[in-house]
Design a protein that fits this description.
- The structure is a single chain.
- The protein has 191 residues and is α+β, with helices and mostly antiparallel strands.
- Helix content is 33%, strand content 24%.
- The chain is built from five helices and nine strands, in the order ββαβαββαββββαα.
- A hairpin with a 2-residue loop joins β8 and β9.
- Belongs to the bacterial ribosomal protein bL9 family.
- Keywords: Ribonucleoprotein, Ribosomal protein, RNA-binding, rRNA-binding.
- Pfam families: Ribosomal_L9_C, Ribosomal_L9_N.
- InterPro entries: Ribosomal_bL9 (IPR000244), Ribosomal_bL9/RNase_H1_N (IPR009027), Ribosomal_bL9_bac/chp (IPR020594), Ribosomal_bL9_C (IPR020069), Ribosomal_bL9_C_sf (IPR036791), Ribosomal_bL9_N (IPR020070), Ribosomal_bL9_N_sf (IPR036935).
């Protein structure tokens, strides 16, 4: 199906372009969300008549998204979750959780604007990309930890899943002699 794009869509085209897309993509996404019109003579005339208002609306949305991106730039958000000793979360942090965390901080970001291909399942520092507008995207940092104190330690660069963090042992201080006696008789016969 051929459609006229009413806004820039990444990997598809710019506003005003006529592009060929799959029927399901057009019927289920582009047309219902008002991102495109079917490419026919009436809609082409309608688009040309409304082009200036569409461009102004797009510019306004882009400037609002840029303001949010400027406010989010360089920020890190702490996410406290239950996790095992190895750093594996008992649950996960999904796009919905990221949107809720940002909403709690006063940022209006929808979960469909959060690019998270797979949920976060381990503690640590994770970079998450936000697509605020088709031309504005920003990366934020999520600090996933078991407590606020651990989040502070993680932010300083400390690893919370290594042996020293879990067992209170310095990994560099471990020597083979600590685990077995090299002088011991291996076959169990006493001489």
């Amino acid at each position: 199906m051929e459609v006229i794009l009413l806004e820039r869509i990444s990997k598809l085209g710019q506003m005003g372009e006529t592009v060929k897309v799959r029927d399901g993509f057009a019927r289920n996404y582009l047309l219902p969300l008002g991102k495109a019109l079917r490419a026919n003579a009436a809609n082409k005339a309608r688009f040309e008549a409304e082009r200036s208002t569409l461009e102004a609306r797009n510019l306004e949305r882009k400037s609002e998204a840029q303001k949010v991106a400027d406010a989010l730039g360089g920020k890190s958000f702490v996410v406290v979750r239950s996790a095992g000793e190895t750093g594996q979360l008992y649950g996960s942090v999904a796009a919905r959780d990221v949107a809720d965390i940002l909403a709690a901080e006063g940022f209006n970001v929808g979960r469909n604007q959060v690019e998270l291909n797979t949920p976060i399942k381990t503690i640590g520092l994770h970079s998450v990309t936000l697509h605020l507008h088709s031309e504005v995207e920003i990366a934020i940092e999520l600090n996933v930890a078991r407590s606020a104190e651990e989040a502070e330690r993680q932010a300083k660069g400390e690893s919370l899943t290594s042996a020293d963090a879990i067992y209170g042992v310095d990994e560099d201080a471990l020597r083979p002699e600590d685990f077995f006696d090299p002088e011991a008789d291996r076959d169990g016969d006493e001489e």
